[in-house]
Amino acid sequence: MVSVARQASPAQSAGLWDRFSIRTKRVIWAWGFLALPIVFYVTIRFYPTVQAFWLSLTDWDLLRPATFIGLDNYKRLFADPLFWQVFRNTFTYLIIGTPVSLVLSFIIAFYLDRVRFMHGFIRALYFLPFLTTAAAMAWVWRWFYQPVPIGVINDVLQLMGLPQQPFLRSVNQALPAIMVTAIWAGLGFQIIIFMAGLRAIPTTYYEAARIDGLGEWAILRKITLPLLKPTTVFLVVFSSIGFLRIFDQVYNMTTNDPGGPLNSTKPLVLMIFQTAFSSYDMGYAAAQTVVLFTILLVVSLVQLWVLRERR
Amino acid sequence: MRKKIGLAGLAAGISFLAMGSAQAVEIEYWQYVFDTRVEAMNQLIAKFEEANPDITVKHVTFPYADYQTRVVAAKVAGQGPDVVQLFYGWLDNFVAGGLIQPLDPEVFPYDQIESEFFPIVSAMKRGDSYYGLPTAVRSLALFYNKQLFEEAGLDPNNPPQTLDELIEAAKATVKRDGSGNITSEGITVSMEGQDHQWWREVLIRQFGGQPYSDDGRSVAYNDEAGLAALKFITDLQLEHKVGLSGFMDEGQAAFRAGRAAMTIDGTFRLGAFADNPFEWGVTELPANADGLRSNYASYFANAIGATAEGEELEAAQKFLAYISSPEAMDIWLDVVGELPARKAAALTEENLADPIYGPFLKGLEYAHTTIFVDEQAQRQVAIDMANRVLLQGQDPAESLAQAAEEEQAILDRFYNK
Prior knowledge:
heterodimer; A: mainly alpha; MetI-like fold; 2 domains; B: alpha/beta; D-Maltodextrin-Binding Protein, domain 2; 7-stranded mixed β-sheet; 5-stranded mixed β-sheet; transmembrane helix (chain A); Sugar ABC transporter permease (chain A)
């Protein structure tokens, strides 16, 4: 009895596997391998995302069991002047940061592409900030922005006979001051991507254009920029998401009064962080996260639509 | 057959019992990572285990930034610590979340706690129960740079004792460059540091008010006293121009760099200031014109985790009693530099005569503690209040009223939950 069963089972299973066509087997193998990342993403990414939507409808504070409170968190959020301030800040980072950093990095990439002298070295110099820890960088910049006699920038202003500026200690200057460091930090990466894009444009196009007598400006407008579009789209979306999610620069440059002074530099992510991990107001923080998620989604979709391939 | 099973069961039961009595109870102690605190606690655990060979204490530490989250997460997972360290300001949250249990009055007689510890221990009491006991406490004092005092022609052994003298000393020691920019502060202005505590528990009282109602549920500083206290701090920068908020980032950094003649800070800064490359001194926080002094004291207390029961509870109680004993406090003072929480252990002649510990200890006798419900958020309210005046030129009275409203909203949200 037992021996019969033993003999039968491998034969049966082999039969089942053999009955599949090679195509089906391939599909099974493919899905077998794909299952791992899928399971990983579902548990690590998608499940918490869905959970956040649910939490945003509760008053969970980590300690007590969550109770359903409907849209109260959203009502509170939209009535909170801090949220609108933070919302404005976040979009200021986005609307000024993204174009400025892209234009700058394109100009640098465009000219760096033509430089032969110490090309690698200069490129490395531009890329270096991207490799540096945001925390270390932010701290150095924090000291640059200090009043005299510590701050280098104010020392220079002083030497030129100009009044010293408060920078991070000002409601109006703090956000631009932080944005400068954020742009500077991301520049290296964008330059590298732009240069890769520029190199990918076949030189024959340029040669043909020059033979036809096109000027440099026309070449840039008619050939370089259109052919660089996929790169540009990628960088616009990538850098927008980066600015919408800005956190470490701000947090590290204003550690004593995170997002200050007077919330003038606070981005949405920092507000979420504080609501969740210093006030333990998880439900409210989840509602803010959902709003951030929606903003990111809408902004990315709008950009993809505006910059879409027109056929 | 049945007999055999019965016998086996009996044997197993007996061996199990025997194991139970021979096996030591293990309890977990949690605190955050801070080198000297960890070191002191290791010493205390070693001594405790020596005296109680049947108990082992597992010492678990987390980075400060994650600490509260870890405690809360552990509770959710049902694996909390048996004895846990907490900041007194977190107590309401810890109690509300059921993370800790009240101390058994049989084991820790409440009248003894009240007579033996400094009165600030009352911040550990909710309703009729005490929820924890501190090993060490912290208070504020005025640190001053003797070298800068001497350069300014002041007596380095006679630091300011009143608020007026404080301003005079600051005016004498401040240094400015040709354009009037401060290059070395007379006194630091730093709401982000300890100034918000100084304002709340010291200055407001010295100007005749009180920061909160007696039950701690309403803001009481929106009056003349609160305004005078706020103006005292903002005037240091705006009127007397002896300090600059944000100068060298933080008051303590400016003081360490020898670019501030005075700063108000706590016992916890002693370690950082120990190797300052200049001579410095400590004195009590200045009194008001009538000689009234006040201070702000805070502490980390140890409490018993909600999940401890039976043998573990007993062991946890023993351990808590030991780490709140005078012996433990002496070790803590030596290793960490924090002041003993028991009067008898703290107010020894030797400690009071100590030029560093003395002023802090004197401060403890008249110190207050704020019952925070969300320390970060309430601190932020005070920072913003000062910034509106310093950076936006808002009228101090308006700024104060706004702060009172914001802080009341925080208190209401908590107490109405």
